[in-house]
Structures are given as C-alpha cells and as structure tokens.
C-alpha cells in the first residue's frame, strides 16, 4: 500500500480493486536504485560497475545502473537492438559522437550502432547511468570486426558470482527476474 496521503487533493481516492490482469506478474520495485552501497555494483571490468535492476532471460534484456568512480572505459561494442540511457550523475560519452552526457541527459541508441563508452573524472561525483539493454553487446575491434559477445546469460553469470562473493547471494539476483 502506498504511503497514506494527508494533505494531497487525492487523499480520499481509493486504489483500484483489481490491480493485475489474470496471469500478469507483479510489479518490481527497487528502492534506492542508484545506491552508494558498493556491494550491489558488480565489476564489469577494472573501471566500470553495474547494478542490475531488472532482468528478463526470455527477452535477453536487462536494466541496470552503470557506475564509474572516475575515468573509465567499456570495451568497443555494437548493438543489434535499441538501448535507452538516462544520466543520473557524472559525465560520459561515446568517442564516436559529438555530445557528452551529463546529469539529466537522455540517449536513445538506434539498432546497428557501434561505439566506445567512456566516463570522465568528476571528482567525488560518481558517474551513474541508467540503461535499458535489449539483446547482446557484440564486442568489436578497432576495425569493427566482431571479437565476441555478451548477452543476458553472461550478465546473469557475472552478477551471480559477484553476489555470492559479497554475501548478498544469487537469490537476490533471481528476485530481479521478470
């Protein structure tokens, strides 16, 4: 139940009696999605961390908060599907584009885009980006040739190993599945 209203004009409005249609899964709520608790951030490489918020193995999709504490690099990659990004804090860019995203900026990546994600030194302000990723990331070399891939199943394995190591446990990760 939502927090009880006291002065809001809608305070006497009753909630909908039947929230979910038959066979619908429950909603998924994550409090403090961009938490400062570093245990929830899974090392993606030496400079980038990811906090999973939603995972769909069936759709090969995940939502996460990508985080760096300073200058960082995600390997060059190609997206065969669309990606959405919203900058929570810090500063980041793709080397291949003429923009730099800062807090409050939104990016839509079209299917078929290759790029090199970098983050900047922002002092004590970590860079945090909310991403919605559909499909695999195809790792590429400087000429754009495929060198491997990373999909939702690789993401799950990476996160499970980290959460077991830090004592959160893989059951927490499974609670993010929809």
Describe the structure.
- The structure is a single chain.
- This protein is mainly β and 178 residues long.
- 11% of the residues lie in helices and 36% in strands.
- The strands form three sheets. It has a six-stranded antiparallel beta sheet with strand order 1-2-3-12-6-9, covered by helices on one side. It has a four-stranded antiparallel beta sheet with strand order 4-11-7-8, with no helix packed on it.
- The longest helix is centred in the last third of the chain and has 14 residues.
- It is globular, with a radius of gyration of 18 Å.
Q: Into which percentage range does the β-strand content fall? A: 35-45%
Helix fraction, binned, reads 10-25%
Q: Which consecutive residue ranges, at least 5 long each, have pLDDT under 50?
A: none
Mean pLDDT: 95
User: Roughly how many Å apart are the termini?
Assistant: 21 Å
Quaternary state of the chains: single chain
Q: What general outline do the C-alpha atoms trace?
A: globular
- Total E-strand runs: 14
Compose a concise summary of this entry.
The protein is mostly beta strands. About 10% of the residues lie in helices and about 35% in strands. A 6-stranded antiparallel sheet has the order 1-2-3-12-6-9, covered by helices on one side. It has a 4-stranded antiparallel sheet with strand order 4-11-7-8, with no helix packed on it. A 4-stranded antiparallel sheet has the order 10-5-13-14.
